[in-house]
Amino acid sequence: MSDLELARRLQSRRYDLAIDFHGGPRSSLLTWLSGAPVRIGYQVAGRGWMYTRRVPRPRELRARHSVENQWDLLRALDFPEPNPTAFPVEMPVDPDARRAVDDRLSDAGIENGDRLIVIHVSAGNPFRRWPTESFVELVRALASGKPGRRILLTSGPSDQSAVGRVIADARAGLDEASGRRIVSCGDFSLAELRALLERSCLYIGGDSGPLHVAATTNVPMVGLYGPTLPARTEPWRAPEYVAESVEVHDLPCRPCDQRVCAPGDFRCLTSIDPGQVVEAAERALRYAG
């Protein structure tokens, strides 16, 4: 559908209110073209005139959660303050996805009593991707000498090869029994990933979509933060649920806009030591019981 066709459809619905949470050029234009008599968006140079109510938005990357930043638009409508306990991110489990995941785990030899650790080893762009060799060290440490654990690796649909590399390299440094604790069950849809996390006792991954799918559960989590700040993008859920954050402090280039890595070596990610992640994971697992 072209933008013009979409604009016509929006106009035909005769909306009373349009809120632009994105703030980009296309979303600003579509908000304006919707024809809604009340249009709320950020005060952006050159586009603010497209809204009837404009909310200031500082240009710098602040240590303030993105939910709170976007909630500023709702404050224009007198909404109450955001609260992750009262208003958590939600994603119900699909029954068909649950059955499919249960079957795949059973085929992989994973039983209900196993302590399942899900580790997502890929990300959509290099600014969110922890090095493969670091994942290898992490997986070895978590699988080594822990009979009750099963380590299940997931990835995006276009990066399944990353899972294979991590599994092969991790197993190469382990005894046979420990190596068998590391498995892959192929690609998971978002609905299947949500169901998978119901069976897990820990999720580990970078600051990407699957981390925020995990945030819709009460599973303990370990998030790896490179150019992003946990204060801005950490899981939005009740504080009683464990969410460990691992990051490198005191880098002058962090946070960044994730367009160009100024040093050129993605040091905000490559400097995250696997030992730090192992320690965070073990703390979270103690909480899980």
Q: Characteristics of this structure?
A:
289 residues, alpha/beta, Rossmann fold, 6-stranded parallel beta sheet, 3-stranded parallel beta sheet, 12 helices, 9 strands, globular
Summarize the structure.
With 289 residues, the protein is α/β, with parallel strands linked by helices.
How would you portray this structure in words?
It is a single chain. The protein is an alpha/beta fold. Strand 7, helix 9 and strand 8 form a beta-alpha-beta unit. The protein is built from 12 helices and 9 strands. It starts with a helix and ends with a helix. It has a 6-stranded parallel beta sheet with strand order 6-5-4-7-8-9, with helices on both faces. Strands 1-2-3 form a 3-stranded parallel beta sheet, with helices on both faces. The chain has 2 domains: 73 residues, 3-Layer(aba) Sandwich (Rossmann fold); 193 residues, 3-Layer(aba) Sandwich (Rossmann fold). It is 38% helix and 15% strand. The model has no long low-confidence stretch (mean pLDDT 92). Helix 4 crosses helix 8.
